[in-house]
Each structure stands twice: as structure tokens, then as C-alpha cells.
Amino acid sequence: MLEPADLRAAALLDSQVQERLPTVERATAPIYRDEPSRPVPSGSAVMLRIDDHRFALTAAHVADNSASFPLYIGSSTRPVRLSGTKIATKLKPGQRREDDPLDVAVIHLDGETTRYLRDDEFIDVSQIDAGPLPEDEIFLVAGYPGTRRRDIPTKATLEVTLYPFLACSRPRAAYARVRRNQRISSSWVSQRSACGAREYG
Amino acid sequence: MIAPDLDEMSGCGVWSIFHSSGSLLDGPRLAGLFTEWHRDGVPWIVATRIDVALAAIRANFPELQSMLPKAN
């Protein structure tokens, strides 16, 4: 049971985080794969612009779907075919993507995709935090989980809702213990942060 | 605590919202990408730091090098 002071603090944090959500929402896009019968939610991406270049940043296992199906991103106005050059973390011979310790893809968007995307749907490099990240820090996570989608067949529409929550990073040692139980190599630990997630919003 | 299924969140952003001093940043900053989630006991997620994506951009678009944050 939360004390009144905790509830007040939670309410204050909630209002402050809500103020920051529009930026995150504009730059976060759902990704769909175009299967024969209907679009299927496949992942999320963050849109980044650097000079005249436009990128979609996502997980490699999401981008890998493009080998089987065309991918689309949900822009503010319409679904846009995701086309461009994919750069993904390399797999070693015989390695599966699920064993990829980094699992990151950068898609350099071509003109056919960017023509339908507004500039304010991208963040720029000033909105990147590439510095050392402390442990026990709170982060905002926001994407488009499949459970927050709604099919509207009469309108041939798939409606999705951004799901934001706060997560707290944990010491790497805590993560290492979990991974060791799952027999994953320690190199994974050196590159990643572990987070305990808690629902937000 | 009940957390929803987070499938299809993969690839979304993990954003810094606080200064190290504890005060809120003026705006969110992209710190990582969500790649994995689990729900064994307390739900937890895995993210890869944004430096990995920046390193890929740096390697493939050297003309953008000077505009990117310095590598750690």
C-alpha cells in the first residue's frame, strides 16, 4: 500500500512524463509485415534524422522479416512501405538471431519512404543519450505491443496505441545471473542493460 | 502488478528522462532500443544501448561522423 506522499510523488512523475510523451510518440512508429490476407504487427521503430539522411532504428529480428514480407511503418498519416538499406548486427556462421547479443538494425530510408514522412516524425542527434548509463536509473519505454491493437474490418483499418511504461535499469550482475541460467554467453552482458519493467500509464 | 504482453514492442526506444542529478531532462533522449522481454516473476526487458546503432551509422556513413555523439 502506497503512502500518501508516495502517491503524490507518483502523480507528479506521471504528469511530468506525460508532458514528454508527444516527442516519443511522434518519433516511434509501429512496423507491420504485409502478409497476404492482412497487415500483421511486427515491431516498433524509432525514426532518426542526421543531416539529409533518415533512418529507422529497430531490432534486427524485426527488420529480418523483410526477407519474407514487405514491411510498412505507420506514419502520422498513412502506412508507408519501409524501403532502404538495412544494416543489422552480424550473425556468426550457424548463429540464430535469437542468440544475437545485440539484435539491432539501422535502416537507411530511401526517398520513396521519406517522401511520406514529416520532419517532426524524426528525432535528431541532440535527442540521443549516448553517454554512460547509470544503474538503477529510470527510463521511459514506449512502443506498440500487439495486444494494444484493434482491427476494424469495416474500415480496413488496424488501430494501434502507444504503450508507455517506466523501467529501472539493474546492475549487470543481476542480469548476468539470469542469463547464466539460460546459458547465454557473458558477452551479451557486456553490451546490454538489464531492466526491471513496471507498468506505466 | 499486471503487465501486458509486450510482443511487437521490439525495436522501440528506451528513453532517458532524468539527469544524473535526478532532475528531469528538458526532453526525452534516446538511450537504447528494446530487444527482448520476459515475464518470469517480475517482468523485465532487455535493451541494447544506442551506441550500437550509432556505431553502425558511423561505419557506413563516414560523412556523418562529425555530427554523431562521440563514441564511449
SSE layout and pairings?
The complex is a heterodimer of chains A (201) and B (72).
Chain A: H1 4-27, E1 28-34, E2 39-50, E3 53-59, H2 60-63, E4 71-74, E5 79-81, E6 84-88, E7 104-109, H3 111-114, E8 138-143, E9 149-152, E10 157-160, E11 163-170, H4 172-181, H5 186-191, E12 192-199
Antiparallel strand pairs in A: 1-2, 1-4, 2-3, 3-7, 4-5, 6-7, 8-11, 9-10, 11-12
Chain B: E1 13-18, E2 24-38, E3 44-49, H1 50-60
Antiparallel strand pairs in B: 1-2, 2-3
Question: Would you kindly provide a brief summary of this structure?
Answer:
The complex is a heterodimer of chains A (201) and B (72). Chain A has 201 residues and is α+β, with helices and mostly antiparallel strands.
Model description:
The complex is a heterodimer of chains A (201) and B (72). Helix content of chain A is 24%, strand content 37%. With 201 residues, chain A is of the alpha+beta class. Chain A has a single domain, classed as Thrombin, subunit H (Beta Barrel), CATH 2.40.10. In chain A, strands 5-4-1-2-3-7-6 form a seven-stranded antiparallel sheet. In chain A, strands 8-11-12 form a three-stranded antiparallel sheet. Chain A has a two-stranded antiparallel sheet with strand order 9-10. In chain A, a hairpin with a 4-residue loop joins strand 4 (71-74) and strand 5. The longest helix of chain A is centred in the first third of the chain and has 24 residues, at 4-27. The model of chain A is unreliable at 180-201 (pLDDT under 50). Chain B has one domain. Chain B has 72 residues and is of the alpha+beta class. In chain B, a hairpin with a 5-residue loop joins strand 1 and strand 2 (24-38). Chain B starts with 12 loop residues before the first strand and ends in a 12-residue tail after the last helix. In chain B, strands 1-2-3 form a three-stranded antiparallel sheet. At the A-B interface, helix 1, strand 1, strand 2, strand 3 and helix 2 of A face strand 1, strand 2, strand 3 and helix 1 of B. Strand 8 (138-143) of chain A pairs antiparallel with strand 1 (13-18) of chain B.
